[in-house]
Amino acid sequence: MTSSADDADLLQRIARQDQLALRTLIGRHHVRLYRFLLRLVRDEAMAEELANEVFMEVWRNAGRYEGRSQVGTWLLSIARNRAISRLRKRRELGWDEDAAAEIADEDDDPEVTTQKRDKAAALRRCLEGLTVEHREIIDLVYYQERSVSEVAEIVGIPENTVKTRLYYARKKLSELMLVQGVDRGWP
Most Cβ neighbours (<10 Å): which of 49, 51, 72, 103? Predict the structure, then answer.
């Protein structure tokens, strides 16, 4: 893992229009950023487009980075805001929540469930059963390895709210896993 001082140095260089510094920053953070966006928007093309937009914004605004958080946290915050804006626009352009809720999830049919006994696959299915807010918190804490304070900053909510959401997300996830026949222990 890179040090935040290295990333901060890269941002200073990017502010001076250093393209190599931008390529280095992209190399360090693109995969994690893309995966985070993909979990939020659930569309590979949109996640890739949003990731590119984040790095374009970094190119234009690197000089505005104040160092109050780690660079990775700053990038995730930009990504989250872009994803939310894009999802809102899509909803305004005719996204029908009721119709979307009626779409059958082929991954959850009994045949697929029986075929996929792998605990990791079951966990992914259970994560889909969480609300967007809970899935986002789980993703940031466990997949992005962010602290409670960093998650609070990225999502724009108080730390205690992060802790509460994390508690209920884990509780619901545990219930969903039991329904899937998966205990919480890992061999």
Answer: 51
Both tokens of 78, joined, read 């930009």
Which range is most confident: 32-36, 102-106, 180-184?
32-36
- The single-letter DSSP state of residue 65 is -
Choice between 129 and 103, residue whose per-residue pLDDT is larger: 129
Contact by Cβ (8 Å): 148, 163 = yes
Angle in degrees, CA 162, 155, 86, rounded to 5: 140
Strand, helix or coil for residue 72 = helix
Q: What is the pLDDT of residue 1?
A: 46
pLDDT tens-place string over residues 32-42: 999 999 988 88
Q: What CA–CA distance (Å, rounded) separates 138 from 166?
A: 7
- Report how far apart, in Å, the C-alpha atoms of 46 and of each of 26, 32, 61 are: 17, 15, 22
21 within 8 A of 14, measured Cβ to Cβ: yes
Domains of the chain: 1-97 (1.10.1740.10), 104-187 (1.10.10.10)
User: Closest Cα partner for 70 from 28, 35, 21?
Assistant: 28
Predicted TM-score (pTM) of the model is 0.58
Distance from C-alpha of 89 to C-alpha of 171, rounded to nearest angstrom: 32
The answer to whether residues 57 and 78 touch, using CB atoms and an 8 Å cutoff, is yes
